[in-house]
Amino acid sequence: MTFSRVFKNASVQRFILLACLVLLWQWLSSTERISSLFFPAPSTILSTLYELILSGLLWQHLSATMLRVLFGLMLGGIPAILLGIFMGWSPFYRTLIDPVISAFHPMPKVALLPLIMIIFGIGELSKVVAVAIGAFFPLMINSMAGVAQIQPIYFEAAKVFKADRMFTLRRIIIPGSSPLILAGFRLALNSSVLITIAVELVTARKGLGALIWLAWELFQTEKLYAGLLVIGLLGIAANSLIRLLQERLVPWQPTKAGG
Amino acid sequence: MTLEFTCSELTKEFDSRHSSVRAVAGVNLEVRRFEFLCLIGPSGCGKTTLLRLIAGLIQPTSGSISFHTTSTPEKLRAAMVFQQHGLFPWLTVLQNAAFSLEAQGKSRTVAEAEAARFLDKLGLSDFHDNYPHEISGGMSQRVAIARALLADPQILLMDEPFGSLDAQTRLVLIDELLHIWQQHRKTIVYVTHDIEEALMLADRIVILSGRPGRILESIPINVPRPRGKLIHTDPSLFACYQNIWGLIEGDVRRDLHLTEETE
How many interchain CB pairs under 8 A, A with B? Predict the structure, then answer.
């Protein structure tokens, strides 16, 4: 009775499906029904990953990637939020700056990398700048929209009670725009990871992107898969972080069912 | 008789792209201290505009409002209770109530302690930590009233505060509001489109015409409160009802493009 109920649980079902696929892959690869050169068995990938962890190599690559994401996010994100809130608050500056933003926004930021490398050199700075530019736009646009969508009635209520600008900022602007700023942060985080990996593929010697690029050059497919696995896990960790922040920072939003 | 404020020749025009719309035209109004004044009129007659002018949220195109205030300048002159959704959805009930005190420069701890005491008196002690979307519309409006009263204003401005509530809830809240008004001694300007509501609440009912809003008549209601049970039996209240409806009906029909009733 309880046993069959366990099987009806959606996450249990998902886990079983995933496990079946991995087992199928393991069997196909280890019996060479598919080329283990292109699709090394999950057990091989895991043992490679284990070696990478033991040798400390993985941590070197992972930390390099995470630091680039972190610094890029800070360099691009903090001015993005400040400028976005400012522009959302002031319709005058919004109409002034908006066309510039709209012109730059659709450009795929990775395409800027060669230009950035000309300006900032091939060192760490140009990588962080590329990530920062990618993080800037979604956060800036969402922060602006977040403030602009706050209902006028809340500003009127503040005005009626003679709230000054600082208090209005603290009690209305920031909390009122935080759902959209968080949504922007999610986009910025995703694009930061994406750009970091892309940049590392091209220029870096350390980082998860460099790890898989090196693995490709040496035709170490199992290492390549191990790198991909870690990148995937990094993505999952990023999403959990966002969910945690959402629960912490916007507890007032009616929770969506199943969310 | 002390006057609270006087509106003289108050006019407000709103500019749209090609023309300007007169919302309020040449309003002269004297409001007594501690008076409960109801503003009534057809929808779109500029009631809310008049209220926002008094609140200082917008400036008149011409004319003026003078407040005959005797209190200290730092005291809040007028607080407002909005129609609905006036509470901040990101603040808890307690933080919402304390907002008006904090905006006035009180520290968070002091403001929240004072707000908590007030909410407890209103019987809202179990809901301090709830967010507005978790409580009913009626409760939300009580919190909004608490927020306004906590600022201890001279004048309480209310913009159809019970307009979105069901009839039973409204009846109960009308009683509570009268109770609060008698306890706290405020001048209240209360906007409504509901004649019965105005008859139950007001010392005086001011009737506004359709756009642009002009004062058609000012009717004192001298029936003692509570009037809930009298509203359908007292002949003078009934006469008032007839009188007010007679003044408004034409505008309402014109709005709906109905022809005048012929009998």
Answer: 59
Q: Are strands B78-81 and B204-208 parallel, antiparallel or unpaired?
A: unpaired
Q: What whole-number distance in Å separates Cα of residue A104 and Cα of residue A112? A: 11
Q: How do residues B36-45 score in pLDDT, each as one tens digit? A: 999 998 877 7
- Chain B residues within an 8 Å CB radius of A153: 82, 85-86
Is the pLDDT at A259 greater than 50? The verdict is no
CA nearest to A156 within chain B = B57
A189 neighbors A237 (Cβ within 8 angstroms): no
Are the CB atoms for A198 and A112 separated by under 8 Å?
no
Give the integer Cα–Cα distance in Å for B67 and B86.
25
Contact: B82, A156; criterion CB under 8 Å = yes
What ipTM score was computed for the predicted complex, to two decimals? 0.89
Q: Which two tokens stand for residue A12?
A: 């249990």
Strands lying side by side in the sheet with B62-67: B20-32, B3-15, B62-67
Cβ–Cβ of A153/B86 closer than 8 Å? Answer: yes
Asked if B88's CB is within 8 angstroms of A161's CB, the reply is: no
Interface test with B, best of A172, A182, A246, A252 (most B CBs within 10 A): A252
Q: Which residues lie closer than 8 Å to A179 by C-beta, 6 or more apart? A: A146, A250, A253
pLDDT digits (tens, 9 = 90+) for A82-107: 999 999 998 888 888 888 888 888 88
